[in-house]
Amino acid sequence: MSAPVADLEHVGFGDSTTTSPANTKSRSFLPPGVNPFENAGNPLELFRRKPELPRLEQLLDNTRCSPMSCGDFEAYLVHKEHSAENLMFYNWFRDYEKRWDKLSAEEQARSPPAPEGGVEEKRGSRIAVPQLTRKRTSQTLVPPSSAHDRPGTALTASDAYPSPPTTPSRPLLAGAQAASGTGIDTRFQPFRSEIDKVIAYFFTPGGEIELNIPSSLRRAIVSHARGSTHPTIFAEASECCYDMMRTSSLPGFLKFATVNVGPKKIWWHYGVGTVNSIISFVINLVCILLGLARGYRCIAIPFTLFGIMEIYGAWKGLCFQVYGRRARQLYPWELAEDHEATPLSMPQRSGSVTSAVLPSAARRLSLGKQAIFEREKTIDEPWVWNIQNRVYWKITFVAFIAACVVEAVWLSVPNARRR
């Protein structure tokens, strides 16, 4: 049975004005004349010039390549960090500002802007936020199979979350006169119904996509939204969402994007490294107990080196074989595309932004399980190449020094005395 679908328009990941189905291929953000492979074989040059960290606006504007495209960032927030509401609201606000600017001056005059000091100017007044009843459900939905590969395909609130709260007998935060007592007739304000739904989704305490913003800011936004639909009311909330993505989500995503294998392959490398270390230990111990010449102990050097490289590489999340192919293993949500899923019909409103960015179908969440030797996908982002190059040479250098130290200790141990 398909889940009920909300008619919340314009709330989604994609920016309908810049990312359309015909223009969803991610681009590389490289200065003119820069060759990402120029210093791939020169470790000294790699460490001498550290690559610049990607900026959040580059990801949101889709100027990075896989696995750091806008679609990859969206999928990470949905499936890994579970904080998609920040991106949903931020993209909705950007689109809302553009649509507001297209209104006539007469329509804009019906909704007064927020005070110059911000919506929290009246933080001293306590606002009674309506507590709306809603049933939580464990059902989670994901975009269609190509959603993470097509950043222009928006993931709406109705795709990733259950239906909105039950509407009270009176329209939410709306009526003939604004509840704030301004005397403004809110029935004819532009986008009034959309703002009511946005308040219900993002600013209702206990809601499933409630924004993690200060309570004083939330109360102030709800208070001002009762009498106006001006974009400046939500500007501070949008800044909070952007700051949370920049300071919290972005660092975790950058670290996640540089790992080229899944957890099972990482543990497999830990096991291989442990086995090599045990073999090295046994070889050295046998040579000592049998009283063989010290030169025989050098047989253990390759096992010591490879054992340290495997363990250290697993700790860094880098598989050398996959790295050599400039690839990464598929993520669980990418593997989910191959499993049978129940399609859910989505409304298509002609002539609206929703008709341009809503997916035609959504699928129930059924994340695939990564195997040890999983299928791979080519890495196109030069920044990831450079970071993995640095990690590879660092692992090689550290493992070589550590192997030399370990074998020097073994060579210093005298042979056991024979009776």
Describe the structure.
By secondary structure, this protein is mostly helical. It is 44% helix and 4% strand. The protein has a three-stranded antiparallel β-sheet with strand order 1-4-3, with no helix packed on it. The N terminus is likely disordered.
Rg is 28 Å
Which oligomerization state do the chains in this entry correspond to?
single chain
Sheet having the most strands = 3 strands, antiparallel
Could you report the average pLDDT, rounded to the nearest whole number?
75
Alpha carbon gap, first and last residue: 81 Å
Number of helices: 15
Record field, number of beta strands: 5
Specify the overall morphology.
elongated
Which keywords apply here?
15 helices, 5 strands, two-stranded antiparallel ribbon, mainly alpha, 3-stranded antiparallel β-sheet, 419 residues, disordered N terminus
Set out the fold topology.
Layout: H1 43-48, H2 56-60, H3 70-81, H4 84-101, H5 105-109, E1 141-142, H6 157-160, H7 192-202, H8 215-225, H9 235-257, H10 263-290, H11 301-316, H12 320-324, E2 327-329, H13 332-335, E3 343-345, H14 353-357, E4 361-364, E5 376-378, H15 382-412
Antiparallel strand pairs: 1-4, 2-5, 3-4
Give me a quick take on this structure.
This protein has 419 residues and is mainly alpha-helical. It contains 15 helices and five strands. The chain has helices spanning 43-48, 56-60, 70-81, 84-101, 105-109, 157-160, 192-202, 215-225, 235-257, 263-290, 301-316, 320-324, 332-335, 353-357, 382-412; strands spanning 141-142, 327-329, 343-345, 361-364, 376-378.
